[in-house]
Structure formats: C-alpha cells, structure tokens
Fold this protein.
Amino acid sequence: MGYRFQVDLRGILDLLSNHLYSSPQVFIRELLQNSVDAISQRQQIDPELRGRIEWQVLESEDPPRIRIRDNGVGLTEQEIHEFVATLGRSGKTDSIEARRDEFLGQFGIGLLSCFLVSETIRVRSRSAHGGAPVVWLGRHDGTYDIKAEDGLDDNTEPGTEIELICRSGFERFFRREEVQRLNQHFGELLPIDNVILPDTRFNGCRRPWHHSDKKAQLQFGKRLFGTDFLDCIPIHSEELGFEGVAFVLPQAQSPAARTAHRVYLRGMLVAESLENLLPPWAFFVRCVINTQRLRPTASREAFYEDTELEKIRGGLGETLRDWLLALADKDPDRLRRLLRVHVHSLKALASSDDTAFRIFAKWLPFETTDGMMTLGAYCEKHKSIRFTSSLDSFRQIAPIATTQKLCVINAAYAFELELLMKTQKILGLDIEQTTSATLLVHFDQLETDEEEFASGFMEQAQHVLLAHGCEVLIRKFLPKSLPTFYSATRDSERSRKLDHTKEISGMLWSSVLGKLSSTSHHERPTLCFNYNNPIVRRLLSLDDEGLLSLLIPTIYVQALLLGHHPLSTLEVDLLNRNVLDLVDWSLESRNRWLQ
Amino acid sequence: MSDYRQAIAECLDEARRQSGYGDFALECCEEAVRLADRHRDLDLGFEARLELIELSCFSGRPKDMLTAFAWCLAQVDQHPARFDEAHILWTYKWAIEEAVAFHEIEREQIEEMIQDLSRRFEQVGAGSRSEYHLRCKVATVLGDREAAEHFERLWQRAPHDWLSDCPACDADTHAHVLFWLERNAEAYRAAAPIFHGTLRCAEVPHRTHARVLLPLFMEGRFKEALQHHRLGYPLLQNGRKLSARLADHLLFLTLTSNYDQALALVSKHLPNARNFGSPYEGFIFEYATVFLLDELIQGGEKQVRLCLPESLFGQAENDVRDVKNLCESLRKRCRSVASHFAMRNSNESPTSWMTSIDRLHREVIQMPISKSSDCGSGDS
C-alpha cells in the first residue's frame, strides 16, 4: 500500500521565512498577487469586469487584523480544499504554459507566506461559477476548518476576502502606514483599482515613463533609487513586451560594478535589484522596467535566466545603443557630456559593435605618452598607432618613447585593446605594439669605430650577465643621463618569477616547476647600455677586468631596481656584496692617494 | 615604507574592480606581487599571490597560477606559524587540475601531488571527498576509465566537508565524468538542477551548457542543443579560460554548418588557447578548429578569413589564409601534442579522441542559426 508524505507546516513556514523569502513583508505582495490573478481569471468570463481590491487595516484591534477583498473569480469549497489547503498546488497550475502572460502566481505557496505574520488566516470566498460562499479558517499549526455559509440566495458579488490576525511580534506589518508603504512598494503600477480604505488609492497610476516630462521621470528615478540621475532614456518594445525607463548614473561606473535594476512583472514589483538585465557594456544605467513575460522564481524576488530574459536583455541593449547612436547625430553635446562620465561603457559598446565604433571612436579618450588624447586627434596626427598592452610596459617605456618622439597609447585598460584592433580593421590604420624590446629597434646603432671601441667591454659584460640569464646590447639613445635600459617582456618576467619560485620550493614542487620551466620559450631580457651616457663611455675605456666584473653586475642590479623588478635572493646578495666591495675599494683608493 | 603598502592595496583594489578576469586585472595583481617582492614583504606577497592564484586560474593562465601557488605553498611550509595553510588548501585542487593539463608533468608527480594534498586535507580534518572528486577529474584527462569509474563511486558516497567543491561545481563535474563514461542518462540527471537554475556559481552553468552540446546533438536533440549553445556561449565568450568548453561550441557550430559563426569563434579564441592555456585545453580547441577547417575543405573552400596574430600563426594578407596549410599545420601540432600526452598517460586516449572527432564529419547537418540570435560573432 502507498503512503502519503506528512508535511510539517511549521517546518515549511520556517523554510519559507528563512530560506525562500527575503523578508516577511512579501505577504502583502502575495495577497495582492492572488487578488490580481483572481480578477484576471474572472475577466476571462466577464471581460467588462472592473477589477477592484480593497484593504482594511484594523490596527487598533487586539490582536490587529488586516482584511483584503477582491472581486475576482472566487473559490468553491472544492477549490479551497484543493488549492488553498494543499501545499505546492496552484489554482493556475494547468494553465501556466498556455497562459503564463496572464498570471503572476504559479507555485501554490502564496497564501502560506501570510503565516509568516499571522497566526490565523480566514478566507471567505464566493465563486463566480456559483455556489454558496465558503469560509475557511487556517491555523499556523497546520489545521483548518471549512464550512459553507447558508447564503445561496445571497447576492453578494463573487470574490474573496482574506483576514489575517497578527502574530505576536509582527505588529509593525499591521500598521496602516506600513500596509500603505508596502502596497506602494509592490503594487503601485498594478493596472487595477487598489484601495486602502477609506481613501488611499493606488489605482490608475500613470506609469512614470508615460510622462513626456523628463523632469517628472527623473524625480521618479530619485524617489526609487535616491539618486539624482544625469539623464533618462525611454525604453519600450511591444514585440518583446517591456517598457520602462533607463536612468543614466551620475558617476562613472567600473565595468565590474554590478548595476541593479528594478523589474515589475505586469505591474507587480518582482525584483528590486536584478543584476543581469542588461548586456555587459551597459553598466552606465539603472533601469526600471515592466515586463509581460519573464518567469519569476518561486520566491518571486528574481527571474529565471532563460531565453525570455536573454531576448529582453538583447532588446534592451539594442534600445540603449540606438538611443546613443541617435544622440550622436542629434545632440552631440549631450553625448559628450555623457561620455565624460561614462567613457568605459561607451568603450565597451564600441569595442563590441562596429557601427557604434564608427560613430563614437573619434571621441574616445586614451592615455598616451603625450598626455590624454582622443582617438580622433591621435589618428589625425599619426599615420599608425603605437600602443602598449600593459600598464607596466607603458610606465617603463614612456620616458624613452617621449625622447624618441614616439607617441604611444596605453591600451592596458578594459576594452582598449579591442578598440585599437577595430581601428585597424575598420579605419585601416596600421597598429603596432610597442614593448621595451621593440623600443630597442628605435635606438641608434653605433658606428663601426664605436663598435670596436666598445667590443672589449661588451664581451666581458656578455660573459658576466650570462649567469643572470640576461643578454647585452649597446646603442645610442636619449636621455643621455640614462646609463642603461633594461628590456624585459612579460613572458621573460614570468619566467624569472618561475625560476625564483623554483629556488625556494620544496622538492616536489621544485621538480614540477622545473618541468614547467622547460616549456617556456625562454625569451631573455636584455640590458642595453647607452653609448651617449658619460659614465658608460668611461666604462668602455676601463681596462681593469677585476673592477669591471664588480661594476657590470652592480649596474645590472641597479637597472633591475630602476625598472622596479623584484630581485631574487641571489641578486640581493650580489648587490650587498658588490656595494660593500665598492666601499672597500674606494676607501683603499683614498688611502693610496693620501699616502 | 607605508607607500608601497598603499600602492599594493590600490593595485589589488583595482584588480578586484575589473570586470571578469582580463589582462588588466591580472597585471594589477602582478604589479602588487612585484611591489611586495621588491620590498621583500612576505605577508603582502602572500596576500597578493592569493589574489593572483584566483585571477590567473580564472583567466586561463595556468602556468602563472601554478607559480603563485607554489610560492605560497613554500611559504606555508617554511613559516607554518606565520601563514595559514587553510588559505591555500582550496586552491591546491585547482593547482593539481591545472598541472595535469601539462604533458610535461609526469604521472608520478601528479600522484605525489594528490597524495600531498590528501595528507594536508587529512591534517586539517577534511574528508576524502575532494580527493576522490579530483582523482575522478584527473582520470578523465589521463584517459583512465577504470580509475574514473572507481573514484566516481567513492566520490558520490563520500560525505561533504568544508573543502568539498560547491554543489554547482560538484554537479557539473559529475555530469562531465558521466558523459565521459558514456552514461548519458545519468549525466543529464546530474546536470538537471543546474539547468533548472537551482545550482550556479562562477563557472556553472557556463561549462555545463557546453558539456551537453555534443551528447544532445548525437541523440538528434538539435533544438535542445541549440538552446544550450545560445544560453551557454554568451557566458563563456568573454572569458579566457575553458578553451575545451569553447571547443564544444565550436564543434556544435561546425556540426550545424554555421561556418561564419564558427570562424568568428576561432578568431576570437584560438590565439588565447594557443598562447596562454594549458597544452591540453589548447589541444582540444585546436583540434576542434581542425574539424571546422576539414569541413570547409570538403566544401571546396580554398581560403579562409581568420583574424589571428601573425606572431603565432604566420603572415596573412588581410587575414586571408590558405585553409589547407592552416589545417595541416594545426593537425600536425595536435598530433604532436597528442603523442606527448599519450606518452605521459601511457595510453592512446588523446589520439582516440581525435579519431572520434574525425568520425563526426558524417554527422554534419544544415541548421542555420539566425544572425540576430547568433552567439558566435562578436560584431553586429
């Protein structure tokens, strides 16, 4: 024989209150939603019906009570047994797929949320399909009574009245002002007459985005989000079933910032802070939208990430993009103002969209070795684009690039590299990555006699620095004051780090890193001596092998320090030893000179 | 002295502020490590590297991740009172997963690493679930069916503990292993809570959508597969990791004859797979590219437009490349990598995987994916 599961209502309530809903206040939304759905169902029989919801807050009674009455489809006794008193079964279950657009609820747990704040729930309902009114009394301990009233002749209108009796400790939800606040919060946009007796009405609220007055829309934005927004953008798609407004944030946003949006489902607030509503580039706005089709999760505080959400995201992205493109055409000044604050968003859009790139590219600012510059200004001045792809590399080469009269763009920030790639693809400009290694190419070669003069020194330098895995070179470059230029690519830096780590690791990991090290391409860093530098010149003519073998590694380690490269234990030891040797050597020389 | 501390904090903040796991975030983090190392500040070096481990792992830079991890492990072992081992135990699992994807790392080294992890986990009172989970995953890369089956059983029975993977990753890996073992019905069941939206994390459902593409396709459930492609690819497309999962999308686009989208996907992801990923992930993606190019060759294509860096793939006028040449050079490379893995694994698993991909040519169908709903192309 089969048995039925027993369900502990208290346990379920604990589950709902602690794990499903974020706050007990949702009971107001659940009540509103049941009423809205009941009215929709009745309107299918009677399309002329004007839906109405009434609230009565009896805050001075002991314990306080709340009543909500609607003129919806109502319930028969059988339906009450089936839907109200059976967990997880919704009156709308059979029709979810077919008529999802018409109902907000679908999980059959709505009324249960009332037990979060109420000991006892009393439902009095009369079905539009006929029959006597039925009264159901449900208690927090999981028991309920039901009885039909003798009222077949009663002419009361079909509909449902629910009365909640306050649980101790939840009195705040039974205050009129709180009920009013929550009705406004969840239901101010519901297209239904909703009244808190005697005289607070939320019905017929004009959707704020229907105001043609921009000021009114911005005020609405301020009321919702507490922010003075920079601008607002109307958003609407009949095809995808959404409408609303996007508010332009007053401060710059980091691309990592997760902007939260407010989403209503057929007028009912579902998500106060939905993060994945817009495409990733559109982080400069906060939206309020009302949609017809998204599928809410069981808690109705978020939506499923499904194809509907994906379509709406695409549609919203397109609307925002078209608005920006139109702005470029009709009101470029307003676009520039927006650009000043939200350049990252515009860069993100332009990097992923060719049309947007063509229109915005010229206005997009970049950091260059000649200061901040728009891409348009850069392209006017230079036939090809030089860039570095890392901040570190930019800092390393900036002083030298300037003296070499090379203007280099720092494309280290998000989306910039993609934008430069597009510059090549769409505008046909050559682009070239500048690294400390490519910069070496711009340094002047030595004349033959100069080469000869330097050859002895270079041979020794090569020999000494081989032990440090470093190549040597000699060139002429500016500024003269710089004796050397240490050129390391990111890969060679990473290999260095891997080798340093191998030195300090235990046996197992040292052998693992050893294997990985063998997979590296072993690109070596280069130390380039500056022939223009007076000290280097003197070194070239120094004919003292012993002293050179002390000075060359010291200069090498100094170049590492100047380039902000961390030193290995070996290099620190070398620096310490050499500096002390030099001190010793200079003291010795002084003594000799004094004698 | 406090200046550099401030600078390190700023670098790390900047790295955390960046969206996703891009190069810039990684550089900020590397800069923080560099500053700490320059000042020989072990504590900040440790802190910055913890960040770097995560960033490099999620941005598909396994070698950098392993270097940073090994440094932290060395500090923990050298200064047990100063550095808390618990900080790095979680990432030890990632480190082993990444290491296995390098054929240079020998089987004995992998075994030693797993034993080391197991010993450390045991010392802090964690159970064996993570070890079994890891061994199971490792077995799929090593092509060891027997071990995968054995550890799948143990893993599923072992109790959860504080070092076990999150439920979403757990379900995703389970689905992966079950698909690998060709137990598809069980795999779909394992993935179901992910697709219902109950389980999710930083990489799930991203990976899971990709995993079901080929099984669904092979079962003739084309529309469902398309749905997973449309939902899954946008989640992966801006990431740099998971080349093997991107390969699933690439195979799907080729199998449905959506060659333009497939080529756009190759342009976008092949350089990264080649340049930074592990040899294993790169190999999977490159062979999926070979599959596409073979298909184009069979269709009579002689040239193909692919925007690839010349430093890695040779010169090409206006990005136009000879399909046959490119295909053959990739095939040759894949064969060489596969033979290295075969030698390391002591079996033919990578080569037989290539054969199984070759067999898919006869399964190709026409199922155009409209541009508007297209996920393969980055441009509008």
Summary: Confidence is low (pLDDT under 50) at residues 372-380 of chain B. The first strand of chain B starts at residue 303 and ends at 305. The radius of gyration of chain B is 21 Å. The beta strands of chain B are 303-305, 320-322.
